[in-house]
Amino acid sequence: MNIFILNWKDIKHPHAGGAEVLTHEMAKRFVKEGHRVTLFVSHFDDAKEKEIIDGIKIIRSGKLDLRAFHNSVHFKAYTYYKKNVQGKTDVVIDEVHGMPFFTKFYVKEKVVALICEVADDIWFRMFSFPWNILGWLLERIYLLLYRNVPILTISESTKKELEKTGIPRENITILPMGITRVKINAIKKEKQPTLIFVGRLNKMKGIEDAIIAVSEAQKTIKNLHIWIVGKGEKAFMEYLNKLAKKYRVTATFWQYVSQQKKFELMARAHGIVVPSVREGFGLIVPEAGSVGTPAVVYDAHGLRDTVRDGVNGIKVEKSPEALAQGIEQLFIDKNKYKAMCATAKKYSLRYNWDNTAKTALTILKK
Q1: Are 2-178+352-365 and 194-348 the same fold in CATH?
Q2: Residue 272 forms beta bridges with which residues?
Q3: Whole-angstrom Cα distance, residue 329 to residue 230?
């Protein structure tokens, strides 16, 4: 089977996230099963226009932002398909991140949509007027237009949101998520109370709330420290540094680290804070769990699917004050904390990329 995947980023993109890990892990398993996979994504600085990684043929062209119009990855994907793919592929996977690739209107072959999350209020957090209104409206329109397309998603939360937009329940399949495991030597927790945040640094990920919450929690938890792992726009990172100083929070900004280093830092931290306003799934939660680190998360879409409150982590309402209380719970009862560490590790074992790829292939073959 020839599979053509359209996504905004690939695994090497400097701002790649959980969706790119999901796509790559599935695609390389498709290749192992004997299928041919081409992945079309946006270009980035110093990137090769064409590259093969794990048997996946990657084509890079266009900019991430749809507002680039004819220079956007969406338009470039359309022209590439017309010139090189039409009539030569069996199925097209249209990955949706805010906006689809609109394949429903020009692809002649079968189309499957992969929708990790519904953006909804994220448009108003991440974009200014009039783009926020336009994006919000377009999302509702395209979801209605895609209601008869087979849809893959990654959590019960997102499935429920998709159903609310009018997509029939029987058209939606939840992919069982997997995690990438990294072998590390036995690592002890830090002597000093330490939290970790891992992810892209932007308003959607709630890093501001994390800093304010640590400021509040350190009144109870002495010498509380937070490691911030991730990158964002230069201006926003400068703002976060100023915010940490304003609230007198002891924060270490690691920016980019290798996968090995990321897992070592998560293993050393006492807890991972994930205050995103919404996620498709929250891949970082079971990743941290795999090295025995429980999570404190907002009770938000995606995250509520990965955390069982008081068992492998703590769920709180969406506010810095509630987040601070959740952080304090990690350190108050040592026996309960040890139990959560053990359960977080146990729960992580249920996530396997082989199951993800197998479920996806079943839908693609149909």
Answers
A1: yes
A2: 196, 295
A3: 25
Q: Would you tell me which CATH number, out of the four given (3.30.420.40, 3.40.50.720, 1.20.1290.10, 3.40.50.2000), belongs to the domain 194-348?
A: 3.40.50.2000
Amino acid identity, residue 40? Answer: F
Give all strands of the β-sheet with 250-255 in edge-to-edge order: 250-255, 225-229, 194-198, 271-274, 295-298, 313-316
Half-sphere exposure of 289 (CA within 13 A, CB side): 30
Alpha helices for 146-188 (secondary structure H): 156-164
Q: Which fold has domain 2-178+352-365?
A: Rossmann fold (3.40.50)
pLDDT value of position 132: 83
Res 39: pLDDT = 98
* CA atoms of 159 and 116, how far apart (whole Å): 9
DSSP H or E run through 144 = helix 131-145
pLDDT value at residue 85:
98
Q: How far is Cα 253 from Cα 17, in angstroms, rounded to an integer?
A: 18
Report which residue type is found at 61.
Answer: S
The Cα–Cα gap between 292 and 169 comes to: 35
Q: How far apart are CA 64 and CA 47, in angstroms?
A: 14
Low-confidence ranges of the chain (pLDDT < 70): none
Alpha-carbon span 38 to 36, nearest angstrom: 7
The model's pTM is 0.89
Beta-strand runs (E) in the chain: 2-6, 36-41, 50-53, 56-60, 91-96, 110-115, 151-153, 172-174, 194-198, 225-229, 250-255, 271-274, 295-298, 313-316
Instruction: Count CA atoms closer than 13 A to 299's CA, side-chain side.
Output: 11
Tokens of 94: 């249209």
Determine the Cα–Cα distance for residues 67 and 310; give it in Å rounded to an integer: 44
Would you list the domain boundaries of the chain? 2-178+352-365, 194-348
φ, ψ at 84 (rounded to 5°): -125, -15
Which of helix, strand or coil describes residue 250?
strand
Q: Are 64 and 19 in contact (CB under 8 A)?
A: no
